[in-house]
Amino acid sequence: MSTIEQKRQRLQPRQKRILLFSLLFSILAVSLIYVFTDVFRPLRRDPIPSDAYVVPWMRPNPSIEELWLYSVDSPPWDIEAVMADALAWNITFRIEIPHGTRVIPSTVYLGHDQDYLYIGGKFRGMYKNPVSNFTPGPVLNNYFKIFFDVANDGVLTFPESGSDLGVNLMKDADWYTGRIVFYEDFLWGYSSVSKRETFRFVSDYYDPEAQPAFAVRNSITLYDNSTGTLIILFSRYLRRPELPVNALQMRPGERWTMGFLLELGYNNWYGEWQDLVDGWPQKIYPYLSNNASWWPKLVIDLANPPATLSK
Q1: Which comes out higher in pLDDT, residue 158 or 139?
Q2: What's the helix, strand, coil split of the chain in %, to 5?
Q3: Is 228 exposed, middle or buried (0-12, 13-18, 19+ CB in 10 A)?
Q4: pLDDT tens, 217-242?
Q5: Winning range, highest mean pLDDT, from 10-19, 65-74, 219-228
């Protein structure tokens, strides 16, 4: 064996140790970067404006999961009782429809715990989607949406968040029949169709083969055909890091003040994509501006949870 070969063999174990040490050091460095950016990042603690809507700590009682266990023969559940500890306020939506206007007195409910924002609504006299009566196509949905200016800077930028709870009311729709419930996540992003920024489906940003995590967890609805009253209740995650385009990512102990907007409406696939909708405090559909400076403020404070809601 030559002298050069002997030296090469002596160097190989040393090179392996150096390579192993470099690999371990790289893993440690990446881990430390993650710890310092996520754990030691200062908690967001926004001030509370005097005119803000402060969402109280609460959970629906019974829970949404328990409400699903009610049998068809049971009486309809009462959202006023289920959301008794929530923030509740009355809103009147006025939705222009073919040949008239539907005036819909409504009550909106908001509450939260450590993990979820609970969003409910009772919409009196909403009835079924009027567009469905004039087309041979499928029954179109009624919907209730909430949008957030997560950065709370009055300017909508990618990827502000929103949620949409939709209900298809069939011909036999009543308290426990003829309803198909679905939901979508929204973000503020660029649309290649309209060539501008607007609220878009989060699913547009995923590979069609992927199955993204939803920001909405559970939902339930009721419908009274005799009065046209639609009742909606759903829970929305306050933190879902595996959904990368969800801007609402609150950590325990944080307090966020956010602009927010509500919409109630009917999908209108056959009307050149212009939905029949009204908003609160005012209508902005079809989202021609990114100005959110006039949106009311919503406060979610995850610090100091009450003992009755502790895990």
Answers
A1: 158
A2: 20, 40, 45
A3: middle
A4: 999 999 999 999 999 999 999 999 88
A5: 219-228
* Sheet containing 229-237, strands listed edge to edge, beginning at the edge strand earlier in sequence: 87-97, 100-112, 116-123, 229-237, 216-224
Proportion of the chain above pLDDT 90, given as a percent: 59
Cβ-based burial of 264 (10 A; exposed 0-12, middle 13-18, buried ≥19): buried
Neighbours of 95 (CB within 10 A): 20
Distances (CA, A) of 281 to 12, 88, 115, 209: 72, 15, 27, 38
Query: How far apart are the C-alpha atoms of 267 and 178, rounded to whole Å?
Result: 18
Average pLDDT score, the chain? 86
CA-nearest of 148, 144, 163 to 259 is: 148
Q: What is the pTM of this model?
A: 0.84
Q: What percent of the chain has pLDDT over 70?
A: 81
The confidence band for 212, taking pLDDT boundaries of 50, 70 and 90, is low
Q: For residue 184, which of 230, 150, 219, 132 has the smallest C-alpha distance?
A: 219
CA distance 223 to 127: 9
Beta bridge partners of 194: none
Question: Which two three-digit tokens encode residue 229?
Answer: 């009253």
Secondary structure of residue 310 in the 3-state scheme: coil
Element (H, E) at 18: helix 3-38
Closest residue by Cα to residue 183 from 132, 217, 139? 217
